[in-house]
Amino acid sequence: MPSPLDDPPDDRRRRFEEVYAANRARILGYALRRTSDPQDAADVLAETFLTAWRRLDDVPPGEQARLWLYGVARRVLANHHRGERRRSALAADLGSRLRAEAAVQDAPDPPAAGSVFRSLPDADRELLSLVGWEGLDHGEIAAVLGCSRNAVRIRLHRARRRFAHALDHADAPALPAAARVPNGEHA
């Protein structure tokens, strides 16, 4: 069975190809002058001619087609710029929320705890972060680190012990001595 692409072009396809060939360079130039990225201009060109294909019966003949395409490109660009502004606003909002959340999470930490935590070896900080900040259990941490659950349990016990020891010996104690539990025992 022959493919539709093997068929000779019909009048509709021929008309679109003529409109495209006659106006592609001008519409691309129009888009390039109004966008900061050539890829965005290419997207505007594609969207403009997609609209022309879908609404080919509405495309006026001759030179009027170019003006009609400029109108379509203008609306496509307006949508593009609105989308950019929306994405920028969302990114700014997300950034401010993340900064606020980080400030809230950092605020309750005693000053010594943060500096002691940063002084720990990378492996200890990673383990303690996976538990405390990411909320992962031993099995999930084992999958992340590529080791056994038992290895995670042992490493985490040692990291907690080193952290508690470092807190005990910090210049400015993070917790009152009465609040600390010796040797990781539970109160």
Q: What is the fold named in CATH at topology level of the largest domain?
A: Rna Polymerase Sigma Factor, Chain: A
Number of helices: 7
User: How far apart lie the N and C ends?
Assistant: 80 Å
Number of domains: 2
The Rg value, from CA coordinates, equals: 31 Å
Averaged pLDDT, please? 83
CATH superfamily of the largest domain: RNA polymerase sigma factor, region 2, helix turn helix motif
Model regions low in confidence, pLDDT < 50 over at least 5 residues: 177-187
Strand content: under 5%
What letter string, H or E per element, gives the SSE order?
HHHHHHH
- Percentage of helical residues? 55-70%
Number of strands: 0
Main β sheet profile: none
Broad shape: elongated
What would you call the structural class? mainly alpha
CATH class of the largest domain, named Mainly Alpha
* Name of the CATH architecture of the largest domain: Orthogonal Bundle
What descriptors fit this protein?
mainly alpha, 7 helices, 187 residues, single chain, 2 domains, disordered C terminus, elongated, Rna Polymerase Sigma Factor, Chain: A, Arc Repressor Mutant, subunit A
